[in-house]
Design goal:
With 217 residues, the protein is mainly alpha-helical. It has helices at residues 4-21, 25-28, 32-47, 59-80, 85-95, 116-128, 134-143, 148-167, 184-192, 202-215, and strands spanning 101-104, 107-110, 178-179, 182-183. It folds into two domains: 4-146, Type II deoxyuridine triphosphatase (all-alpha NTP pyrophosphatase fold), CATH 1.10.4010.10; 150-215. The strands form two sheets. A two-stranded antiparallel ribbon has the order 1-2. Strands 3-4 form a two-stranded antiparallel sheet. Helix 1 (4-21) packs across helix 5. The model has no long low-confidence stretch (mean pLDDT 93).
Length: 217
């Protein structure tokens, strides 16, 4: 179960990230769920969905796409309450107990009866309609061999990468996303296995590891 502390920390980190991109992000009202549509499609690619060819599931990258989806889901929740942290936490935790039956486009979907790809499709459809469903996302986590604690650790890691990107010209278009023939996401997955997530300076150590790799590209 997602704890209140985990929810509060992630919402705070997300608000800080949004403010780094644009200090007036609340009034800007970006369509964060539009990004969920794109990230969902990328998740399907990492899982494999083409019935006409052999495909292998890249579980680590699939998990990372879920983390990306979570970033934009948190941003949407924060925007709904004008970045009020207390209200955002209450809203998020209250939605954990929503019904497992989702009504969408005049059809009922039982989360427990859907396979992973169908769940991702539904996640995309809801996002396109500017809706979220936390139990659906939680079910996706389980399908991808994650729980809320694992998501929390990976979220913090990706948050560090997002700050790193912004510090190195992501918004200006000068950031190089590919290092040594691999995307920065892949480097993040690798360095996270080398650092103890329980270390009190986990975020700072992770940032420095990324910086070392990037400067030596």
């Amino acid at each position: 179960m997602l704890t209140q502390t985990q929810a509060e920390v992630m919402l705070t980190l997300q608000a800080n990230m949004n403010a780094k991109v644009n200090p007036d992000w609340v009034n800007a009202g970006y369509p964060y769920l539009r990004a969920v549509v794109v990230e969902g499609a990328e998740a399907m690619e990492h899982h494999g969905w083409k019935w006409w060819k052999k495909q292998d599931c890249d579980l680590e990258q699939l998990q990372m796409e879920l983390v990306d989806i979570w970033h934009f889901t948190l941003s949407h929740i924060l925007l709904e309450v004008k970045a009020n942290q207390k209200l955002a936490t209450e809203l998020l935790l209250s939605q954990l107990n929503e019904d497992k039956i989702i009504k969408f486009d005049n059809k009922n979907y039982n989360i427990n009866e859907l396979d992973l790809i169908s769940k991702v499709e539904l996640e995309i459809g809801l996002a396109a309609a500017r809706r979220i469903n936390i139990p659906l996302f939680e079910s996706l986590l389980s399908d991808c061999k994650m729980d809320w604690t694992e998501l929390f650790c990976q979220y913090v890691g990706k948050n560090v990468l997002n700050f790193f990107r912004q510090d190195h010209g992501y918004k200006e278009g000068t950031y190089d996303k590919h290092w040594h023939g691999r995307e920065d996401n892949e480097h993040l997955v690798e360095v996270m296995t080398e650092i103890d997530s329980e270390h009190p300076e986990f975020q700072q150590m992770l940032y420095q590891s990324l910086k070392d790799r990037y400067s030596g590209r």
